[in-house]
TrEMBL record:
Organism lineage string: Bacteria, Bacillati, Actinomycetota, Actinomycetes, Micrococcales
Family, per entry: Belongs to the universal stress protein A family.
Alphabetical list of Pfam families matching this protein: Usp
Span of the signal peptide: none
Gene3D superfamilies named among the record's database cross-references: HUPs
Protein name as it appears in the record: Universal stress protein
Domain of life per record: Bacteria
Residue ranges constituting the UspA domain according to the UniProt record: 11-155
Length: 170
């Protein structure tokens, strides 16, 4: 039996990030397809963190609850995760784990991939990076540099509009 280095490897654990953005749907679908085709464990990750000071002030002003910033971040991550689990399952993937991780997206994905022994991380990336992202780096660029496994970046399909200001990684 000969091996051909041009044939992509089989994956045993696939980690996918989801944030509830428009690009999350094709990203989760791609991850479900890869996991299904390679009989890999599919691990869904939704990162969350407390809102910044400005967002916290808006949240407290509208709700009157100083704990709202944590609840909103966690609630959004939970909703994104539930949606991703339903989508992946609906398309034939078996979800091995669905995790909400309190961390920045790149850190959450890297940590989960290391803990789970992942051999593939899948994220969505859309459009041109903002000035801040160009200076500080995007989630995708951080994963490409720091991940110890393959990284697959799902781009929007032609004609799919991604709203300005929406999270870049799905």
């Amino acid at each position: 039996m000969t091996t051909d280095s041009r044939i992509p490897p089989d994956y045993s654990t696939v980690v996918v990030g989801t944030d509830g953005s428009d690009l999350a749907i094709p990203t989760v679908l791609r991850a479900a397809r890869v996991a299904q085709r390679t009989d890999a464990d599919l691990v869904l990750v939704s990162a969350w963190s407390q809102l910044g000071r400005r967002e916290q002030a808006k949240s407290v002003a509208s709700s009157g609850d100083t704990r709202a910033s944590t609840v909103i971040g966690r609630a959004a991550a939970n909703a994104a995760l539930a949606s991703a689990v339903a989508l992946a399952t609906e398309h034939g993937a078996t979800v091995a784990a669905a995790l909400m991780v309190r961390a920045e997206p790149a850190a959450a994905l890297l940590e989960t991939a290391a803990e789970r022994g992942a051999d593939l991380i899948i994220i969505g990336a859309a459009g041109q990076p903002s000035l801040a992202e160009r200076l500080l780096g995007t989630v995708a660029s951080e994963l490409i540099v720091r991940a110890e496994c393959d990284v697959l970046i799902v781009r929007p399909t032609r004609g799919q509009e991604i709203e300005v200001g929406r999270p870049e990684s799905a």
